[in-house]
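Please decode residue identities from the backbone states below.
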């Protein structure tokens, strides 16, 4: 099943899960009841699942090959277009000679 949420809805869900888990963590500190740990762990698992999917979608939507106006990744040329001789770069010692 695939469910779509807006960014604001995802933020609200993540905040609610975090608060829910924190409440059970506080309760567990008082009672040391393993059931509280299980509920807290389930909330944290859901939080991780949603956050992981959100990050994956963000990375997918913001990759260079998918941007409007950017060439597809297969067309990006990473070959150097010019060579630079490091001995021709001005340094403090030879800068005075270039003036």
């Amino acid at each position: 099943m695939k469910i779509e949420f807006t960014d604001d809805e995802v933020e609200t869900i993540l905040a609610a899960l975090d608060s829910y888990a924190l409440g059970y963590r506080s309760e567990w500190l008082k009672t040391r009841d393993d059931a509280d740990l299980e509920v807290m762990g389930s909330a944290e698992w859901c939080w991780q699942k949603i956050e992981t999917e959100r990050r994956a979608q963000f990375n997918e939507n913001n990759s260079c090959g998918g941007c409007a106006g950017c060439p597809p990744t297969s067309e990006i040329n990473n070959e150097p277009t010019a060579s630079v001789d490091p001995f021709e770069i001005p340094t403090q010692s030879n800068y005075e000679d270039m003036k």
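Observation: The longest helix spans residues 34-61.
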